Amino acid sequence: MAGSMSGLLVGALFFGVRTLALAHGPYSADGGVSPFYVWTGALAASPGTLLRHELLDQRLALTKAARSERILYVSTDGAGVAVKTAVSGSVYLPAAKPPPAGWPVVAWAHGTVGVADVCAPSWRGWLGRDRAYLNAWLDRGYAVVASDYQGLGTPGMHAYLNWRSEAYGILDAVRASRATFGLDNRVVIVGQSQGSGAALGAGFAAPDYAPDVNVRGVVATGLVVALAVPVAGAPQVPVPPYAGGSAEDAAYSMLYLLGVDQLLDRSLDVDTYVSPQGADLLHAALTGCLTEVTKVATAENLSPQTAFTQARASLVPVEDENLIFPSARFRMPVFTGTGLADSVAGTAPQYNFIADLCAAGTQVSWHFYPGLTHNGTVNASLVDSVPFVEAVMNGQPVASNCATLSAPGPLQTSTPGVPFNH
Question: Which CATH number belongs to the domain containing residue 160 in this structure?
Answer without folding.
Answer: 3.40.50.1820
